[in-house]
Amino acid sequence: MRIASVTFLGVNVTPKTNWCFLLLRTESGLTGTGECTLSDHEALLAAEAERIAGALIGEDALARNRIARLIPHAPGGLVSHAVVSALEQALWDLAGQEAGRPIHAMLGGALRPCVPLYANINRGAAPRTPEGFAAAARRAVASGFRAVKLAPFEPMVWEDAAEPRQRAAYAEGLARIAAVREAVGAAVDVMVDAHWRFSPGGAAALIRDVAPFDLFWLECPVSEANHWEIRRLRGMANDRGIRLAGAETLAGLAAYRPIIEAGCYDVLMPDIKYAGGHAQITRIAALAQTAGIEIAPHNPTGPVCHAHSVQLCATLPNLLPLEVQFGETERFFSMTQGHDQRFTSGTAPLPVLPGLGLRLDERAARETPWQPMPSPWLDPRLG
Fold it and tell me: CATH number for the 3-100 domain, one of 3.30.390.10, 1.20.1050.40, 3.40.50.300, 3.40.50.2300?
């Protein structure tokens, strides 16, 4: 089964969101699909896909271990890691189609018939007031979700802490959390994503201030490289009954090993778009399990990342609910054909079709090519 072409496809889906995909076509007519969405880096992703395409044409699509190796010190950094991760995903899709088996079966078999989900309500909250977040949370619960997550502290960046508006942004963030907790009640888990917005001292105050809201976890409070401070903050959070979660943009087992050994997080969040794909996350999860650490993959982007994440999560023993972006755009469901990805009572049923179990509607996707984002979701200083 030889690779005939490699195609990058970037798609605009909202004024603030592009999704990016990698399509591998074989000489026999099969198409394997992966996702490499990386906000504000679409042009670089396209260039990296074009760069590696020449070396892939004519290669055996089943030689995954050789042609989709993640190199931690790759000069292209996260852009390179994202494209390689999408390549690995697409090769698994092709292997499953060739074998007539879903990816989860190729990975050794599912441990569960469906994958539990939690609703990331951040992009579906409008207006972005406490009431708007509360309404989004209620919609998620009405759809069957038993856990919701919000990123409430925009436009905070700790480097600007001296500015008066930062204090107001912090107070607004706490009000958004309070409104969501009140809206969903005690039976629904609430997670908060801090998007690396805090200094270590600010994060310590944050943990104190969110303790009354009974959070399931606090995510990414400080820079990922600050292991000693993350471990200290984990202890503070745990003393208040809160898990600490993070590590969503790291790539490869080598990057996760020191995080695990240092005891930084209760929950690791490897993203199949960045971490190297199915095989790398399987290894990361296995090492995490030896340390009693849970896995909740980062998955707030497009339908192909979600489909691959569901296939993988079905096989992980130390799994917490998988993230989904709730309420951002209906194109999440309409852009693919095959397995129906609509959520069922806060879960994702497993596909039974071969490979990924779905394919992109390329014609519809190409009608809205990716667009530069003048106002992205995150301040560029945050990653």
Answer: 3.30.390.10
